[in-house]
Amino acid sequence: DRAQAWGFVHPIAWPVVHPCLRPEQPVFYDAHDDYAQFLQQAYGEAEDRLVARILGLERDLLQRATAAVFCTADDRAAVQRRNPDCAVRLLVVPNGVDTAACRVVCPGEAHGRRQAAGLERPLAVFMGSIHKPNREAVEFIVREMVPNYTQVLFVVMGLDLEAYRRAGHVSADRANLVWTGPVSEAVKEAVFSLADIALAPLIGGTGSSLKIPDYVAHGKIVVATPIGLRGFEDLAKFPAVISAEDVRAALTGVLERLETDPQAFDPACRNAREWAERSLDWSVAAEPLVEVVRKSFFQTKI
User: Fold this and answer.
1) Residues β-bridged to residue 181
2) 180: Cβ–Cβ under 8 A, 6 or more apart, which residues?
3) Cα separations in angstroms, 12 against 6, 30, 56, 232, 255
4) Based on the number of CB atoms within 10 Å of its own CB, is 120 exposed (0-12), middle (13-18) or buried (19 or more)?
5) Which of 39, 123, 171, 196 is buried most deeply by CB count within 10 Å?
6) Which of 199, 184, 207 is nearest to 30 (CA)?
7) What pTM value is reported for the model?
8) Which residues fall within 8 angstroms of residue 175, CB to CB, at 6 or more apart?
9) Are β-strands 67-70 and 241-243 bridged in parallel, bridged antiparallel, or unpaired?
10) d(CA 30, CA 9)
11) Which pLDDT tens digit goes with each residue over 84-136?
12) Rg (the chain; Cα; Å)
């Protein structure tokens, strides 16, 4: 009874909440993905009835929502095609980052820090949770990159090793691969301060990845697949953010250039970071939603 507004991150809550709604209460839907694509990847044809039921709930939610938020323009367009009569405001709010909390350490400085710490090899980091697209990306790193780039130290940060094994993956026991598991912000900053390169070789998934703005805000060279860079295509204009189907070839090119000049990518890394400050800091990225929330609460006098 005391609710002033309702927020959804998943449509299955709609039948529970709907009877409680009052006409004056704003309703916001934060859709992290194109839900149809997400469900199809999760359940496939074996659960067509379930997928149709959940998409029906999403349609009902969208009919009532004050605003719905999507990470990418493609996801918003897909939902709009499925719901052409939907009058709701469909907004794009890209995954952002708290740039002020991210210390910029470009590859040239990271190289010096590693040397001082006795680490001679370049460091490439992957950051992510146990989410399926991240597991697939790590599987690629373990299988295709770790054994073929013994001159590089690979760090998998955040993803829990035991959960990765339980999901059916085999972890390689190699001298140039480190699993940190979940880490504190302080440890995350320490790892980033030693890393030259950040990897995002994703092959599936929907929405966009929180790791990309985080990588860029820390001044890293980013090597990603087009799927890994989905929603952040504008960043590919910077030479330090590389979108490539063949990520192994892209990594080879980056390593060869760093070997002759550890500071070669520093200007591009700084330029990408500055762009992220102007475009992807949460204070900027979330402004369209903030404005809708302001207007909704003002108009309903809540």
Assistant:
1) 157
2) 155, 156, 157, 158, 187, 191
3) 14, 13, 10, 29, 46
4) exposed
5) 196
6) 207
7) 0.90
8) none
9) unpaired
10) 5
11) 888 778 999 999 999 999 999 999 999 999 999 999 999 999 999 988 889 99
12) 21
pLDDT, position 301: 45
Q: Tens digits of per-residue pLDDT, 187-221?
A: 999 999 999 999 999 998 777 889 999 999 999 99
* CA 29 to each of CA 25, 35, 50, 70, 181: distance values in angstroms, whole numbers, following the listed order: 13, 12, 20, 9, 31
Beta bridge partners of 124: 154, 197
The rounded distance, in Å, linking the Cα atoms of 206 and 35 is: 8
Question: Looking up tokens 């990309």, which residue turns up?
Answer: 212
Tokens for 58?
């999403």
Q: Is the pLDDT of residue 43 over 70?
A: no
3-state secondary structure the chain: CCCCCEEECCHHHHHHHHHHCCCCCCEEEEECCCHHHHHHHHHHHHHHHHHHHHHHHHHHHHHHCCEEEECCHHHHHHHHHHCCCCCCEEEECCCCECHHHCCCCCHHHHHHHHHHHCCCCCEEEEECCCCHHHHHHHHHHHHHHCCCCCCCEEEEECCCHHHHHHCCCCCCCCCCEEEEECCCHHHHHHHHHHCCEEEECCCCCCCCCCHHHHHHHCCCEEEECCCCCCCCHHHHHCCCEEECCCHHHHHHHHHHHHHHCCCCCHHHHHHHHHHHHHHCEHHHHCHHHHHHHHHHHHHHCC
Name which of 230, 174, 228 is nearest 198 in CA terms.
228
| Maximum Cα–Cα distance across the chain | 66
